[in-house]
Design brief:
This protein has helices at 7-27, 31-42, 54-66, 69-75, 80-121, 125-157. It is rod-shaped and about 110 Å long. Helix 1 packs antiparallel against helix 5 (80-121) and helix 3 (54-66) packs antiparallel against helix 5. By secondary structure, it is an all-alpha fold.
Length: 172
């Protein structure tokens, strides 16, 4: 369930959980039918799982609901109706969690898409080298123009003009 990234599958899981919620409210626990839906959502029980999920919770509440009346009184278990109600609340919590996960995944996917768009605007090797050379050339031109402007302003104001300083270097 946590590895699902397809929105349609999420919607299908939400629909299955809604059906399960309605059926448990109307008919109570029906292990054969309920197990089919739970396996469709959470997979079979033969796989190794991390932590408890709604399927595990279902099995716990089903066992409590199916205990005999004497056992229930002795261990102070809840009635089958209370078990159904509590499990229905757990289904509601799971639906809210799934919807939160959907929103989080959508925002992550949006951010990923925006990042890919930005990455496409950055040129690759030769194009990037050319842009860097252009940038260096423009910076040198700006520095030279600022130096000329500074000299002209000093001359206009009658201040001593510093000697023209030119540093040229080449990398070979």
């Amino acid at each position: 369930m946590r590895a699902i990234a397809t929105p349609r599958v999420f919607e299908c899981c939400l629909r299955f959980l809604g059906d399960l919620h309605d059926w448990i409210q109307k008919f109570g626990f029906r292990p054969k039918q309920d197990t089919i839906l739970l396996q469709a959502i959470y997979g079979t029980r033969d796989r190794v799982r991390l932590g408890l999920d709604l399927y595990d919770s279902y099995e716990i509440w089903l066992q409590i609901a199916e205990t005999s009346e004497q056992e229930r009184e002795r261990k102070e278990y809840m009635s089958p109706a209370e078990c159904r109600m509590i499990f229905s609340e757990e289904i509601d919590k799971e639906v809210r969690r799934i919807k939160r996960d959907q929103k989080a995944r959508a925002s992550i996917e949006t951010a990923r898409t925006q990042l890919e768009i930005v990455c496409r605007n950055v040129p690759d090797g030769p194009g990037l080298d050319r842009l860097l050379r252009y940038e260096a050339h423009i910076e040198r031109c700006i520095d030279r123009t600022l130096s000329q402007l500074e000299r002209q302003q000093r001359m206009r104001l009658g201040q001593p003009v510093l000697p023209k300083l030119e540093v040229r270097h080449s990398v070979s």
